[in-house]
Amino acid sequence: MAQANKVLEEALALSATERARVAARLIESLDDESQDDTEEAWRVEVARRVRDLDDGAVVAIDWLEARRQILG
Question: Which of 18, 26, 42, 72 could form a disulfide with 14 if both were Cys (CB 3.0 to 4.6 A apart)?
Fold first, then answer.
């Protein structure tokens, strides 16, 4: 934790542009770690939705009808 505090202190001394670059890279590093899990979760979800459509468990509606239902 002491090292993290030191890094944070040094980062806060950077210019706004440099801090933004560091912040973006840190966020990207978090995304990198969960990217594989997210892609797999979406693959499973898409397969489930296609299966539901194929099995008749759900019925697709066109965009105009969906918009009408959403907006009332």
Answer: 18
Instruction: With residue 14 as reference, give the H or E element that holds it.
Output: none
Closest residue by Cα to residue 43 from 53, 35, 32: 35
Question: In the chain, where are the structural domains located?
Answer: 2-71
Location of structure tokens 């990207």: 28
Specify the pLDDT at position 39: 84
Dist CA 41 CA 24 (whole Å): 24
Longest dimension (CA), the chain: 59
Q: Give the global pTM.
A: 0.48
Q: Determine if residue 62 is left, alpha or beta; phi over 0 gives left, psi from -120 to 50 gives alpha, anything else beta.
A: beta
